[in-house]
Amino acid sequence: MNTVHDIREMQRLADAHRAAGRRIGFVPTMGFLHDGHLSLITAAKAQCDVVVVSIFVNPTQFGAGEDLDRYPRDLARDAALAERAGCDTLFVPEEGAMYPPGYGTAVDCNGVASTLEGASRPGHFRGVTTVVAKLFNIVKPHVAVFGQKDAQQALILKKMSEELNFDVDLQIAPTVRESDGLAMSSRNAYLDASDRAAALSISRGLREAEAQYRNGERSADTLRRTVEHEMRLAGLTIDYVALVDARTLEEMEMLERPALLAVAARAGSTRLIDNVVLQER
Ligand code: AMP
Question: Do 77 and 120 form a contact (C-beta atoms < 8 A)?
Answer without folding.
Answer: no
